[in-house]
Amino acid sequence: MSDHPTGIKRWLFTTNHKDIGTMYLWFAFTMLFVGGAMAMVIRAELFEPGMQVVNPNFFNMMTTLHGLIMVFGAIMPAMVGFANWQVPLMIGAPDMALPRMNNWSFWILPFAAIMLVAPMFMGGDFMDGQGPAFGWTFYEPLSGQYDKLAFFIFAVHLLGFSSIMGAINIIATILNMRAPGMTLMKMPLFVWTWLITAFLLIAVMPVLAGVVTMMLTDKYFGTSFFDAAGGGDPVLFQHVFWFFGHPEVYIMILPAFGIVSQIIPTFARKPLFGYASMVYATAAIAFLSFIVWAHHMFTVGMPAAGELYFMYATVMIAVPTAVKVFNWTATMWKGSMTFEVPMLWAIAFVFLFTIGGFTGLMLGVVPVDFQYHDTYFVVAHFHYVLVTGALFAIIGGVYYWMPKWTGNMFDITLAKWHFWVSTISVNILFFPQHFLGLAGMPRRIPDYALQFAEFNQISSIGAFIFGGTQLLFLYIIIKCIKGGDKVSDEVWEDAKGLEWEVPSPAPYHTHVTPPTVK
Amino acid sequence: MSASHITKKLSVLLGLLLVPGIALADYALNMTQGVTEISKDIYDLHQLVMWICTVAGILVFTVMIYSLINHRKSKGAVAAQFHESATVEVVWTVIPLVILVAIAVPATGVLLDIEDPSKSDVTIQVTGWQWKWQYNYRDEDLSFFSNLSSDSNEARQLGADPSLMAKADNYLLNVDKPIVVPVNKKVRLLITSNDVIHAWWVPEFAVKRDAVPGFINESHFTATKTGIYRGQCAELCGKDHGFMPIVVKVVEQAEYNNWLKTEKAAIAAAAGDSNKTFSHDELMAKGEAVYKANCAACHQADGSGGGPFPGLVGSKLVTTGSIEDHLKLIIAGKGIMPPFGAQLSDADIAAVTTYERNAWGNNTGDTVQPAAAKAAR
């Protein structure tokens, strides 16, 4: 069975979904530390009022690259890594439907990341780096002032290619390669959320490619899509960007919903409550994500009718999202719960994601958004959704499936430390940012008025603890790969699903003959 | 070590961390109520939505916590196997819907008030520049720039003496020239930009509107209390986005009228400046002020430059180059340096040119008069 190349060739040429999934996850983890290091620079500069660490342009470069790297380098590739490992295991397929394309879609990523970050190291002094410094949303005309825009644009194009190919592969796999008896409505929820996410990716990645191509021709070929002086419209950029950007938010969170929906039933020892309504709620959120984009730009000067429409549509998202939270709660209700490490992360996810959901509802109400918009209140909101939401689900997923991947149980004591320190520090980090925003601190500023000093300092302390704690996660993972208590095939007591029926560690090829699902 | 043990230890640690801070600081926890009817409406709406969320959160979290405590295997709980209920699903779809309607109705009312700039008393055009604001009183023929005040500007430089921050008046939230508006009068704002997108935000007025190049956005406020109100640019606009504050002085109508009169008189007095001849010292003094307000952000107060911004100390253009080329560069800009011709008067340009050619040991001895600036345009 192990007739594959060894050494570096194994990883360069592999078409095995497990190898590729592993590479995606390691890439994402590396990017998590790169983007995280940038967050540490941001929080160090904001630790005290005044400019101590970096100059304003470098600070803007940090916020820009932190956002881009976390979104496109950490969260999305981690989710694709899970899809690669788990979708074939969970639907009883031997591999992904398009294994060579799978290899290609991964290997594009490191080059895209290098191209994105490279300009940071151009320019004489390190502090004079020429990296992008216009925010991860790269609004025109500011981004058009950037000298090395072509690097950025081609990096985004490469990331888009990779995502689209990954999405096509996942759809092809799920629709064509399920084991006999695995009907769509019997699929594990993680598979469902990824199927819907993959359609979102195929729909919006070309829009992102379109908008950066318009930027490219504006900058280098004399067009004026976004230049008012040439008859264009800078606001058009924002409409096109957010038509991509809002579904993008759900691309990051829907698979997280899926992971949590796998973990909670296992440790509540009770089937997921409202499976069908979970599927419909996921689809409803995906649909709504296409018709609410302009709520990111309420202050841009839209007609009142437009603002009202986008407000109504936006707050509607609270309904399917609430349904999901209620379903998870009902799954736990009258269960027989134990609190293994993955369950801890999943429960923290439900609590803290809900807080992010509530602030999202508040932000959707246009008149009050005029006060919240572009302040730290927004920063707090999307970090609750993306860190304690998407990232917590990813970490929970790693703890849930890592014993299956390695055959070893991780160090439970250390993992609990990892959980508790992370969960407490992440709240010290992000909760005070709500207050900063309400008190009037704009986002993306390298220095602030003295009245914001205390909460910034608390937030920075939380950030340093939270950031440092993730090194413990790295140690736990390496330790688990190297050895540990051997786990059974089932791993978790009475866990349900095809992935728990294959041996631990999962052999290089699984489900070579399809299992039958009753 | 058990999880609860760890939590206890951490909470003690956390407590120690926070207590001295709480004792020292005045922590603003909530949104300002502001000084306009609309800002108060927005505050009320914020309170309503926040309390709805808080109550809903407490209800859901209570159920979850009850379940986490009671439905655990270690307590002998046996898992029930129910996993669907159409009734329950319908109920918890409808309840959020009803709550949303309860939020949307008052929100719609407030929004329609906000979007009605009609019947205004004063109209001010606000133009965002990298990185300053320009105000143009449309009916008064009065226009000026508003820059970060020089004491804040000095204190915010990388590695500046930290004591400068405390000495600066309202660090980062003060300008050299605030706008003045009358109390209880509806002020209409026409907001636009000269370069990239900015956003004009004063929390006390609950006005935040993007300044988009090539387009004009409308907004308005009616301040009901005299005082000084401060805000900042809210949309990332490049390097010095954090350093273009807004200061609005709300005064009684009579004081406003006086202010207008004084400003107009100053403009009339300055109008003759481009035909005047100044002494070298006058030009140096004026030039230093113009330099600090317009040039120091990039070229630094000591002319040393940095990164993509060339130093002016001993620079070829500034010391041995022709005065005319020097003037033209300031007027027309070059590369990332914006053109200053439209922002600065002939006298300002002449003064700053004189300053640059003689400050920091450049000592060319040149004196540049406004007439030369006028000719270089």
* Number of H- or I-type helical stretches of chain A: 15
Provide the CATH superfamily of chain A: Cytochrome c oxidase-like, subunit I domain
CATH architecture of the largest domain in chain B: Sandwich
What level of helicity do the residues of chain B show? 40-55%
CATH superfamily of the largest domain in chain B: Cupredoxins -  blue copper proteins
How is the largest sheet of chain B built, in terms of strand order? 3-2-1-5-8
Q: Give a short account of the largest sheet of chain B.
A: 5 strands, mixed
CATH class of the largest domain in chain B: Mainly Beta
The CATH architecture term of chain A is Up-down Bundle
Oligomerization state: heterodimer
CATH class of chain A: Mainly Alpha
Q: Helix tally of chain B?
A: 12
Distance between the termini of chain B: 77 Å
- SSE class of chain A: mainly alpha
What is the residue-mean pLDDT of chain A, rounded to a whole number? 95
Notable features of this structure?
heterodimer; A: 518 residues; Cytochrome C Oxidase, Chain A; globular; B: 377 residues; alpha+beta; Immunoglobulin-like; Cytochrome Bc1 Complex, Chain D, domain 2; 3 domains; 5-stranded mixed beta sheet; 12 helices
